[in-house]
Specification:
about 280 residues; TIM Barrel; 11 strands; globular
Length: about 280
């Protein structure tokens, strides 16, 4: 069993840098895995090199070559889509699945998205089941997992997360647990992680500062990035212990806001993993 450490490229957004620059900086910091963000079509910022997202209109081998140039592997593609809007989510995530298969990313990370005002709450799960059924058909064909994370009104709770992540009986529908989002949503992230158990396929290692916790816990359903792992309220030794109990083998993808936080996160998680490995040796 191996637990690896990666980083979501959101850490470079504060500097208005490109995908290639984000990958280069991640490698410079010492990461071996990263989680690219993909989008459909073209837009000004990433096209001009001011944003780290990568257009799926580009050749996927271009992304693969950039990752290989800096010695990084993709732990997942960040491919969030509104599951209650199948006309949007299905073509976007189908394209993401095919893209992931080429670049070697084993997982797509997503959440349920915002509930459109024209979708009644009592119908939301039926719509998501339709969307996920179609996506899992494609995911099974390509061998790509779909990891649902706690991030919006339904999945902010462990109960809601597990309901969405089990709407379709497919081995490819799994969970991408996010400790920070679960915590801010008012959940116990350790109990949530235990409840997810063997369904965990990928994880967002997100810590939350004491200041953000005091201001936002229970009032929001998540946050784009957190503070450096080890600087906030999450007990990473406890998290790693639960992961080992669950037999998890995969990547902890750090979600933080700056390169300095990415460096501190890597150092802290390496130390925690080393102590944990020594304790079980």
């Amino acid at each position: 069993m191996s637990i690896e450490i990666g980083v979501n490229l959101e850490f470079i957004r504060c500097e208005d840098k490109s995908f290639a620059e984000g990958v280069a900086r991640a490698a410079q910091i010492g990461y071996h895995y990263c989680e690219p963000l993909v989008h459909s079509g073209y837009e000004l910022l990433s096209g001009g090199g001011y944003y780290h997202s990568f257009s799926m209109q580009n050749d996927p081998y271009e992304m693969k070559d950039i990752l290989a140039q800096y010695g990084l592997k993709p732990s997942a593609l960040s491919s969030h889509a509104p599951l209650m809007r199948p006309e949007v989510a299905i073509p976007y995530m189908e394209q993401s699945i095919r893209f992931a298969a080429v670049v070697g990313a084993p997982v797509l990370t997503s959440d349920e998205g915002m509930r459109p005002p024209w979708v009644p709450v009592e119908e939301a799960f039926d719509v998501m089941k339709y969307t996920l059924t179609r996506l899992c058909m494609i995911a099974e064909r390509y061998g790509i997992y779909i990891g649902i994370e706690p991030h919006q009104a339904i999945t902010k709770s462990t109960e809601g997360l597990m309901r969405v992540a089990t709407l379709v009986n497919s081995p490819m529908l799994r969970v991408n647990y996010d400790t920070g989002n679960a915590y801010l949503g008012g959940e116990d992230p350790y109990a949530g992680l235990r409840a997810v158990g063997k369904r965990l396929i990928h994880m967002h290692a997100k810590d939350i500062s004491v200041q953000q916790s005091e201001k936002e816990r229970g009032a929001v359903t998540g946050t784009p990035v957190g503070c450096a792992c080890g600087d906030g309220v999450i007990d990473w030794a406890k998290v790693i212990g639960i992961l080992r109990e669950n037999g998890f083998s995969g990547v902890l993808s750090v979600e933080c806001g700056t390169p300095a936080q990415a460096a501190r996160s890597l150092a802290h998680l390496r130390e925690v993993l080393a102590k944990s490995a020594a304790a079980v040796a």
